[in-house]
Amino acid sequence: MTNKNSQDSNSEEIFSGGASVELDLRGKQSVRATFKLSEKAIDSLSLVAIHLGIKQKSLFDHLIDDVKSLNDIAESLRLRQFKQINRVQKTFVLSRKTLDILELIAKDHDTPRDALVEYSIRKLESVILAEKKRHGKRKELFNELCLHWEAGKALLEKSRQSLGAGDPFCQNLEKSMGGLSRTMQELASFIEKSAIIESYQPLQVSDQAL
Prior knowledge:
Helix 2 crosses helix 8 and helix 4 crosses helix 7 (about 115-120). A two-stranded antiparallel ribbon has the order 1-2. It has helices at about 5-30, 40-50, 55-65, 65-75, 80-85, 95-110, 115-120, 125-165, 170-195, 205-210, and strands spanning about 30-35, 90-95. The chain has 2 domains: about 30-125; about 130-210. The chain has about 210 residues and is mainly α.
C-alpha cells in the first residue's frame, strides 16, 4: 500500500516543477513595448543587429537583462540632460522577463524606463565603432579579391585560347571561376547592406553624460 504522505510529497514536487516551468515560459514570452528614444539609439540597435547577425529582440533582452548595469545607469542618471534629447517613439519586441526587470528597476529608482533603455543602448557604441573598422577592412579585402577575379578571368581566356574550351583544365578552371563569381556576389551584397555603418559617428562627450 502506497504511503499517503509519500503521495502528497510527490504531488507537491510535480506541481512545484510544473509551476517553475510555467513561470520560465512566461518569462520568455514575447511582448511589445513602446519607448521614446533618440534616433541615434534606435539606429545603434539596428546596426549591431545587422552586422552581428543577432535578432533585435535577443540583443534588446541581453542589454536590459544586465540588472547590475541597469541599476548603475539608474543611480547615475541626470534627468535634466535626458529630457533635452530629441526622441521619437519606437515599438520593440522583447521578452516578458526583460520588460518586468526594466519596469521594476524604473520603479525602484523612480526613473523613466525610456531613460534606462536609451543609456543601455548607448553601451553598444564601442561595438559599432569596432565593427565600422572591420567593415573598412572588409572593403579593402574585397577590392583585392576583385583583382584576383579579374586575373582569373584573364587566365581562363588564355587557357581557352591555348588548350581549347573543352580541355579538362579549362573546364575545371571555369567551374572555379563560377563559384568565385557567386561568392563575390554574396560578399558584394553583404558589404552594400553594411554600408550604412560608414556614416556612423561617435557620440559627443556632452551627449554621453548621464
